[in-house]
Design brief:
single chain, alpha+beta, Penicillin-binding protein 2a (Domain 2), Beta-lactamase, 3 domains, 21 helices
C-alpha cells in the first residue's frame, strides 16, 4: 500500500514539473518570440500620428502651374476627453446643425471612446483659422493637417483626374494605405499615384491610460518626416487646351491633338466636361452623384472611351494598304457614277469629277474609288483565299494602333474594334463571305470602331510617314526626369514612307484644292494643312462630324482629330474647329475671327445651358 502512494507522489511531481516547464516556455515565447503583446502594450502607451505629405504639383509643357495644393484640416475627437462646452458656438464655426453634431459624436463613441477618430474631414483654411482661435474651449478635439487639390484654371478635368478616399478593398490590397488616406481615382492622379503621393511620415506621442498626450516619445528619435510627392510636367499646352474647351462649348464630342515627332498629347478635350473643383473636398461625393446623374454624361471621357465609325477619314488607310500590297497605284483611275455599283449592291456617293486617281479620290472623298481599292486588297491573287488577304489587311490596321489599346498613360482607354476574320466566319459561315459582303469597311463604316485618340494617332503616323510614339500626357517626372521608356520607343507600321506621298498630296488637296475638295473651310493661308473629312453614320440620330489633319505639311508640329457628335458633315463643323486649333498652336493667335465666332456661336447640343 505504501509503495502504491509513493508512486502517486512521483506522478504528481512529474505533472507539476511538466506544467511549470510549459508555463515557462509560454512566457519565454510571449516575451521574446511573439511580438503581438509587446505591440499591444506599446499601442496602449504610444500614439503614432501620421504626417501626410503634399502631393506633387502638375505643370503644363511650358512650365505653367495647373494643379497645386491648398491646406485643409481634419478635425478629430477623443470622446472620453470631451467635457461640457459651448456646442452652439462649436457648430456655428463648423457650419453644422445640432442634429449633425449628435450624429457625428455617436459615430465617434461607437468607434472608440478612447481612440481618436475623424469628426469632420477636410475643413477649409478659413474655418480652421476660426476654430484654432477657440480650440482650447473644446476639450477632446484636435486638428490634423491635410491638403486639398487646387486648380489654376477650370480645365482638363478628364485628363487630370481627381483624388478620393481609399476603400477597404484597396487597403487590403496595398499596405501603404490606411483608413482616411487619399488616392488618385482617375486621370493623371491615378496613373502617376506612386509619384504624386509622396511618402507619409509619423510623429509618435506618449499617452497615459486615458489617452492624454504626455509628450513626444523618445524625444522624437523614432519620428519620420513626410516626403512630398514628385512634381510632374504634363505634355499639354494649357492655352491650347483652354481654347479647345472653349470651341467645344455647347457641343458634344472631343478633340485630340498630338505632337507627331514625340507622341506628346498637346490637348485632350472631352465635351461636355466639368470644373475639376467640383470633385475636391467634402463636396466631392454630392457633386459626383450630381455629375453621374447628368444626362449629358460630363464624367464620360469621349476622347479615350467613345468608339465611333471613322467614316471617310478611314479611306486613307485603305489607300495606304492598297499601295503597300501593290494592288493599286497612285495613278490608278476608277470611275464613279454617283456611287459604287456591283449587281444589286450600291454604295452611294456625291457628285464630283470622274474618273479620279488616288490623290484626287482622297481630296474629293470618292466612295466608289475606295470600294474598288478595298475589293482589290481582299481579292489579291498573292493570297490563296480571301480570308488570308483580310488577315493581312487587319494586321496593317493593328500596326497603326487600331483594334487595341494604344497604351496611353491614362486609365480607362477603350480598344475600339477592327473585326476579325473569325467574326465574319461565325456570322456568315467559314469562308462563305466575300469582299462585297464587307464592302462597308472600304469607307470606314460597318463593324469598325475607333476612338478619337486612335484617329489622332493615325494622323500622326501619316505626318511621320509611317511611324509613331505611343501617345502620352506626362512629359517629365521630377525636375530632371523623363517619360517612361515605353513612350520613347518608336513604332514602325510597315507602310513604306514613299506610299504616304500620294495620300498626303490628296489630304493637302482636300484643304487647299479647288472645287470638289471636301475641307476647303479648313484652309489657312499662312500654313499648309493636310486633312481629311468624315461623316460617321449614327443609328441613334444625326451623323457625327469628323476631321483629321496635320500641319505644316513639311516638318509637322501638330496632328489632330476632331469629333462633333450629331453635327452632320465633317467639312461644316469638325474641320473649322481643327483648323482653328492648328492656327492657335502654330501662330499663337487667331486672325480668322469670323471663323472663331462661327464656331463659338454653334449650338449643337440642344440641352446646352449657356
Amino acid at each position: 500500500m505504501k509503495d502504491r502512494y509513493a508512486n502517486r507522489k512521483y506522478l504528481v511531481m512529474a505533472l507539476v514539473l511538466v506544467a511549470a516547464l510549459i508555463l515557462v516556455a509560454r512566457l519565454l515565447y510571449i516575451q521574446i518570440v511573439d511580438k503581438t503583446y509587446r505591440v499591444s502594450a506599446a499601442n496602449n502607451a504610444l500614439r503614432p500620428v501620421p504626417q501626410y505629405p503634399a502631393r506633387g504639383l502638375i505643370y503644363d509643357r511650358n512650365g505653367e502651374l495647373i494643379v497645386y495644393n491648398q491646406a485643409a484640416y481634419d478635425l478629430l475627437v477623443i470622446p472620453v476627453q470631451t467635457s461640457a462646452f459651448d456646442t452652439a458656438r462649436f457648430n456655428q464655426i463648423l457650419g453644422i446643425t445640432m442634429e449633425d453634431f449628435s450624429i457625428r459624436m455617436k459615430a465617434a463613441v461607437s468607434y472608440s471612446r478612447r481612440a481618436p477618430s475623424v469628426f469632420m474631414k477636410m475643413i477649409s483654411s478659413e474655418t480652421y483659422a476660426l476654430l484654432q482661435e477657440e480650440l482650447y474651449r473644446f476639450p477632446g478635439f484636435y486638428v490634423q493637417a491635410r491638403t486639398l487639390r487646387k486648380y489654376t484654371r477650370p480645365l482638363a478635368s478628364h485628363l487630370l483626374g481627381y483624388v478620393g478616399e481609399v476603400d477597404n478593398k484597396l487597403i487590403a490590397r496595398d499596405r501603404y494605405y490606411r483608413s482616411g488616406d487619399y488616392i488618385g481615382i482617375s486621370g493623371i492622379e491615378k496613373s502617376y499615384e506612386e509619384n504624386l503621393r509622396g511618402t507619409k511620415g509619423v510623429t509618435i506621442f506618449l499617452v497615459d491610460v486615458h489617452n492624454n498626450i504626455k509628450g513626444s516619445y523618445a524625444e522624437g528619435r523614432y519620428d519620420t518626416v513626410a516626403v512630398p510627392g514628385t512634381n510632374l510636367w504634363s505634355t499639354i499646352d494649357l492655352n491650347l487646351q483652354e481654347f479647345g474647351e472653349k470651341l467645344m462649348r455647347n457641343k458634344t464630342g472631343s478633340i485630340v491633338a498630338i505632337e507627331p515627332a514625340t507622341g506628346e498629347i498637346l490637348a485632350l478635350v472631352s465635351s461636355p466636361s466639368y470644373d475639376p473643383e467640383l470633385l475636391v473636398g467634402r463636396v466631392r461625393s454630392a457633386n459626383f452623384s450630381m455629375l453621374q446623374a447628368d444626362t449629358v454624361k460630363p464624367l464620360f471621357d469621349r476622347a479615350l472611351m467613345a468608339s465611333y465609325p471613322p467614316g471617310s477619314t478611314f479611306k486613307i488607310m485603305n489607300g495606304l494598304i492598297g499601295l503597300q500590297e501593290n494592288v493599286i497605284r497612285p495613278s490608278s483611275l476608277f470611275s464613279c457614277s454617283m456611287g459604287y455599283h456591283a449587281g444589286s449592291l450600291t454604295v452611294g456617293c456625291h457628285s464630283h469629277d470622274s474618273p479620279l486617281n488616288l490623290p484626287q479620290a482622297v481630296a474629293q472623298s470618292c466612295n466608289a474609288w475606295f470600294c474598288n481599292a478595298f475589293r482589290n486588297i481582299l481579292e489579291n491573287k498573292q493570297y490563296p483565299i480571301l480570308g488570308e488577304a483580310f488577315d493581312h489587311w487587319r494586321q496593317y490596321l493593328v500596326a497603326f494602333g487600331f483594334g487595341n489599346k494604344l497604351g496611353i498613360d491614362l486609365p480607362n482607354e477603350l480598344a475600339g474594334n477592327i473585326p476579325t476574320r473569325s467574326y465574319y466566319d461565325r456570322y456568315y459561315g467559314k469562308d462563305r463571305w466575300k469582299a462585297l459582303t464587307v464592302i462597308s469597311l472600304a469607307i470606314g463604316q460597318g463593324e469598325i470602331g475607333a476612338t478619337p485618340l486612335q484617329m489622332a494617332n493615325m494622323a500622326a503616323v501619316i505626318a511621320n510617314r509611317g511611324s509613331f510614339y505611343i501617345p502620352h500626357v506626362v512629359k517629365k517626372i521630377g525636375d530632371d526626369g523623363s517619360p517612361a521608356p515605353l513612350y520613347m520607343q518608336k513604332y514602325i507600321t510597315g507602310i513604306s514612307p514613299e506610299n504616304f506621298d500620294p495620300v498626303i498630296e490628296g489630304m493637302e488637296g482636300a484643304v487647299n484644292g479647288g472645287p470638289g475638295s471636301t475641307a476647303r473651310g479648313a484652309r489657312l493661308d499662312s500654313i499648309i494643312i493636310c486633312g481629311k473629312t468624315g461623316t460617321a453614320q449614327n443609328p441613334h440620330g444625326k451623323d457625327h462630324s469628323i476631321f483629321v489633319a496635320f500641319a505644316p505639311k513639311d516638318n509637322p508640329q501638330i496632328a489632330i482629330a476632331v469629333y462633333v457628335e450629331n453635327a452632320g458633315f465633317g467639312s461644316t463643323f469638325a474641320a473649322p474647329i481643327a483648323s482653328l486649333m492648328i492656327e492657335r498652336y502654330l501662330t499663337g493667335e487667331i486672325k480668322r475671327k469670323y471663323l472663331e465666332d462661327y464656331v463659338l456661336n454653334l449650338v449643337i447640343r440642344p440641352d446646352a445651358k449657356e
